[in-house]
Amino acid sequence: MLKGIHRQWKQAVAFAFSKGPIKAKDLKPLLVSKIGFEVMATVCDQGGSNQAVINSLLRDTDEYCKKKNIENTFDGFLIDDVDIIVLYDVPHLFKGLRNNLLSKDLHFQMNACWDHIEKFYLLDKTESTRLCPKLSDGHIYAAKLNKMKVSVTTQVFSHSVGELNKYTKTDYDLPLAAEDTADFILFIDELFDSLNCNTKTAPDGKPLRGGVSLTSGHEEFWLKALEILKSMKLQYILPRAINQDCLENFFASLRGHGRFDSMPDASQFIVSFKALLVNKFLSTHSPGANCENDFTVGASDNLRCFL
């Protein structure tokens, strides 16, 4: 699927059938196909085949530079002499971070431990007036946790949870190290804001939730974040445009189109793909999908040009 970075459009352009997970050797030719658009970046999740294709394209770029006897100063990989930036889907990255924290402590400039979050939740549950009423067992305990829902992750890594965890540690008899976990939550909340903004103007108290511009403070924040994580420009951009919610919503629409239920065969899939594309051109959101409204406003071409 193609997605506009500045103007909010999306357009499905192609599909391929695969029996089982697609292999990297079959995926790579699809990614480098000429489609007549100027591609700025690719977005995908961290699936093994996706990573293998990206690593292969990065190696190809290295080899190209060696043959030309030039330094590899490209930010991504080269296709037809165009530098294409590699991006991983932000919601998937944050879910992966949370899922790892469930079973492992995190050590870098600060230490974070899921046990601190769990203890804070248990103590908060006992209060007659809860500090974080949105948190439930489904946010905290691995056995009950919906690992696919981004909102479940962001509600834990939120400003309110971080602040309360930090300033009530004495009242709640949390260990001193819980302050590091609170600082980590506040950092992740800011990082998610900076990578998920969808409006040009930031709301009060959330400066990183506005569009990225030369004066918005994102670059300064990202430079500091690089020191913590080891981890964009032009007028303003909305980083939330750079994820794959639009593709997941489109796929959910395909599975629910007509009477094909959730398991269409190949011929039914083709019929649905054509119908949804011509209908324009797609709803921006699919009820029951595991991602949010993708905020797109149509396709790149109007139907007359498309036909």
UniProtKB/TrEMBL annotation:
Pfam families in alphabetical order: TNP-like_GBD, TNP-like_RNaseH_C, TNP-like_RNaseH_N
Protein name (record): Transposable element P transposase
Occurrences of domain Transposable element P transposase-like GTP-binding insertion (ranges): 92-201
Domain Transposable element P transposase-like RNase H: from-to ranges: 1-57
InterPro entries: TNP-like_GBD (IPR048366), TNP-like_RNaseH_C (IPR048367), TNP-like_RNaseH_N (IPR048365)
Organism this protein belongs to: Asbolus verrucosus (Desert ironclad beetle)
Transposable element P transposase-like RNase H C-terminal domain sequence ranges: 241-274
Origin superkingdom: Eukaryota
